[in-house]
Amino acid sequence: MLKVYGDIQSGNCYKVKLLMSLLDIEHEWIPVSVLGNETRSAPFLVMNPNAKIPVLDLGNGEYLPESNAILNYLADGTDFLPSDRLQRARVLQWQFFEQYSHEPYVAVARFIAKYLGLPDDRRQEYLSKQEGGHKALRVMEHQLAQTHYLAGSRYTIADISLYAYTHVADEGGFDLAGYPAIGAWLARIAAHPRHVTIAQFLA
Fold it and tell me: The pTM is what?
């Protein structure tokens, strides 16, 4: 059985959990605390020397870290990852955007506020993330005003990659009220019959 090491409140880990629910993939979830420095333990570093979650244990001595790499591995051959060369590249385009233009702002601001409690010594950093986060949200809004999903007309792992932190962006101080296309997209994602929320996983 596949095993996933992660923290379900982390958007990067939730991505993996959400796709596994959508694809009905049986797995074991093993909680890992970042704040408890569990990612720096010797056994964890064997799985991922970069000391980050999530990590997918393939059960054969192989480990796959990096959330978007895991999504691509699990989605291969399914409707969530197109077989067409250009469409697959479009999915990757948005996943690269998520890691370089979205996550460093939206996710980091959320981490400072939600995980650390917005301490005074991180407040300036938190505020500095707002402009970059809204820039990323505007790019998404522009695309989603034209297409139902980020890579076109189909729900793909591009959407999962960006849904994870966008749907909780308010926890990082980002008001989504001014992004109607994003709001409609969030509703479409949540309407999938196999959709699950972070709260459901924590229950």
Answer: 0.96
